[in-house]
Amino acid sequence: MTSLAADVVTSRAGSRTLRGFAELATAVADAAGDPAWLADLRRAAVARFADVGLPGSKDEEWRFTPLQGLAALQFNAPGPAMPVAIVDLAPFLLGMPGWPLLVVVDGYVDRRLSRIGTLPPGATFGSLADAIAIGHPLVERHLGHHAPVDASAFTAVNAALVRDGAFVHVGAGVALQEPLHVLYVATDGAAGSIVAPRMLTVLDRGAQATVIETFVHLGHARGTPRPQLTDICAEIVLGESARLEHTRLQRESLATYHVGFTAVDQARASHYRSFALALGGRLSRHNLHARLGGANIETLLYGLYVARGEQLVDSHTAIFHDHPDCRSWEVYKGVLAERARGVFNGKVIVRPEAQRTDAKQTNRNLLLGDEARIDTKPQLEIFADDVKCTHGATVGKLDDQQRYYMRSRGIAGRAVEVLLITAFVAEVVAEITQPQVREALEALVYAEMNALIA
Amino acid sequence: MMALLEIVDLHANAGDAEILRGVSLTVDAGEVHAIMGPNGSGKSTLAQVLAGHPAYRVTRGTVTFAGHDLLDMEPEERAHAGLFLAFQYPVEIPGVTNAYFLRTAYNAIRKARGLDELDPMDFLDLLEDRLRVVEWGPEIMERAVNAGFSGGEKKRNEILQMAVLEPTLAVLDETDSGLDIDALRIVAKGVNALRRPDRATVLVTHYQRLLNYIVPDRVHVLSGGRIVKSGGKELAHELEERGYEWLTGTGDAESVTAPAASYAATASPVPAAP
Ligand SMILES: Nc1ncnc2c1ncn2[C@@H]1O[C@H](COP(=O)(O)OP(=O)(O)OP(=O)(O)O)[C@@H](O)[C@H]1O
Ligand SMILES: [Mg+2]
Question: How far does CA A3 lie from the centroid of its chain?
Fold first, then answer.
């Protein structure tokens, strides 16, 4: 294993590698005490990354998201995590105090901060490392199969480095009432390093759950935090007629590079509903891929990205309609201020057998500065003939008539802009069905909009 | 006594085109004035210049409102000073509820006047009271401002806003156009409810009909960017019978007997999502 990782360094053209990755991968491989299947996965991941390296500007998937900044960084082994107290987490908690909470600090589950409570029989929520250690059969069956190492350079990096994360399993017919919250905390201890947790969520036939993933940064050090890479994979497997509401909040420090890959595999008649909020790091990229592996599936993707300053925020979604009679509905909105850049790419791929597909995709963007920019690209590939597929992308500025109308009613200054921007984003936030989560996010988004205009 | 509104020799351009060509008009507190005139004569332009629409440039003249130099004020400052314009084409604001919009506007005006903001519960009471004026149930408050409202509903919503904000001077730009008879009665009720000796109303209208409900003290005819005739309420009857030709010489009688009652959808760069 050691020699394999070392090969990476010598076989690679220096500019396209992730500096320090090979050493980190070697350390993980040496230390982890992995079961054979995981050791194999790591080996394949290291080999894969050695093969492809970091995507360059010629890679169509990364055309608008340059990674030179990331390639220039040197990554080292993480330092000890900063001490995190329960009170530090208060600003990031959602809903009721009793809701199950799994806290992942710098890539490792922190048992002291987590509180799972009592789940109904048939439900598991806990550390991925624990599930691996006890040889949970679902982990071996699914890990790396939905977000495989060749899905992206970063799924390979994650597979090579992952040590822990979240494991969710909801047995057949079990409906969880309370949302499961996975709170990923990056501390200053992870500065200059790569944090690579993974989530595996499996809902058996007819199971129902709500999962929230939150990514935050807790900085104790003064000044600008040092850059860090969060490379997260989430693999989500929905059995027949299972229902999952998935909320993802990315609100890390402005020094963070965040690359996330969420792979959702859906069986017949299942329902997946996602709300992804990206408040950006230095650069944040999220791939959300849903494979509709049976008939009568419903897939609803809502997203909101907000960025300012020099931030870049990139949302890539892909919906694979492989079977007939499925419905996918997607609305992503973006607000970009100052010199921020947004990227949206929405693939909808309808195979010949996927007749009577009903797919609608919408991407709307609000640019608040002359230097803000969005590259948006709907990408519909439709090979079936009896389908209803539409897409629309818009880019606009705040409407002068609306502004004037508000001012004529006495609303002045920043309030006008905050109200109009909030109105623009309200529509997607309203799609979060869990009321307490929705209210919390409305407040968060409102505060964010206020800060944007300040 | 000083007039509430005094317009003297007002000239205004839209781009290079001169639309207002020397309007003079004095409105005293307690009065209702009606402004009539053919399509395109500048009635909405006058109303919008008063409200401070940035598309118009005043090239000459003065406007004094309650002792302020109105033309020197921002649109929101005019609202704070007690001016209200009911738009001919009210603007849709998807995503902002009527309730939130009205409370924000109400409190913005109070704040500008150095008053405490009204808390949501007290505001709700006020709102309930004003909803009665326009004979609306509370459901309307949870809908986005004017979004998807019918033409008549938008006009009624302008009257609701006026009833809540209680302006000293309300300018109503064709609020009666396109209304059914019940809605017309409600608009009139809203205006009459607001009447007080220290307030005034300017009604831009094409119809004598409205003036049966709200009896004006003065009626003015605007044509070609000027007030070409002023008179008492009987002038409105005369116009209804004779059209504008006898005043303008060039007027199109059609425009009086069959005025446009359409409502332009407001273009938004961010159209409402499906
Ligand atoms: N922003 C603008 N840019 C260019 N021309 C304008 C603008 N606003 C108004 N005009 C022109 O000025 C003239 C007067 O328009 P205005 O809307 O004031 O008429 P009006 O008297 O209100 O008519 P109506 O009875 O049809 O409502 C019209 O010829 C119109 O086209
Ligand atoms: Mg008009």
Answer: 33
Token pair of A255, please? 């020094």
- Measure in Å the smallest separation between the Cα of A411 and chain B Cα atoms: 5
Closest protein CA for atom 3 of ligand 1: B14
The residue whose two tokens read 């069959």 is: B258
Contacts of B52 in chain A (CB under 8 A): 407-408
Across the interface, of A399, A423, A425, the residue whose CB is closest to B269 is A399
Distance CA A407, CA B85 (A): 11
For residue A4, count CB atoms less than 10 angstroms from its CB and return exposed for 0-12, middle for 13-18, buried for 19 or more: middle
Note the pLDDT tens digit of each residue in B65-81. 999 999 999 999 999 99
Burial class (CB in 10 A: 0-12, 13-18, 19+), A18: buried
Domain B5-266: CATH class, spelled out: alpha beta
Q: What is the mean pLDDT of residues B147-165?
A: 96
pLDDT at A379: 94
Burial (0-12, 13-18, 19+ Cβ within 10 Å), B150: exposed
Measured between alpha carbons, how far is B150 from A355 in angstroms, rounded to an integer?
38
Confidence of residue B267 (pLDDT cuts 50, 70, 90): very low
pLDDT tens for B212-235 read 999 999 999 999 999 999 999 999
* Residue among A62, A74, A58 at smallest CA distance from A17: A74
Give the CA distances from residue A332 to residues A305, A380, A388, A434, in Å, rounded to whole numbers and listed in that order: 8, 16, 19, 19
Closest-approaching ligand to the CA atom of B19:
1
- Of A203, A290, A211, A214, which is closest to residue A249 (Cα–Cα)? A214
Cα separation of B57 and A409, whole Å?
21
Kind of pairing, strands B226-231 and B218-223?
Answer: antiparallel
Nearest to B82 by CA among B227, B214, B196, B186: B196
* Spatial separation of the C-alpha atoms in residues B250 and B96, rounded to whole Å: 45
Give bridge partners of residue A347 from the DSSP assignment: A318, A379
User: A415 phi and psi, to 5 degrees?
Assistant: -60, -35
Beta-strand pair B56-65/B32-36: unpaired
Nearest beta carbon to residue B268 from set A399, A404, A422: A399
Whether the predicted model's global pTM rises above the 0.80 cut: yes
Interior angle at CA B137, CA B132 and CA B142, nearest 5: 120
Ligand 1, atom nearest to B19 Cα: 12
As given in the structure block, the two tokens for residue B129 are 């009271």
* Contact yes or no for B157/A409 (Cβ under 8 A): no
C-alpha span between A255 and A233 (Å, rounded):
20
A305's tokens = 């990205």
CA–CA distances in Å: residue B87 to residues A311, B51, B106, B204: 40, 10, 18, 10
pLDDT of residue B249: 62
- pLDDT band (50, 70, 90) for residue B263: very low
CA angle, A289 then A290 then A291, to 5°: 120
Chosen from A407, A422, A429, A449 to mutate, greatest number of chain B CBs within 10 A: A407
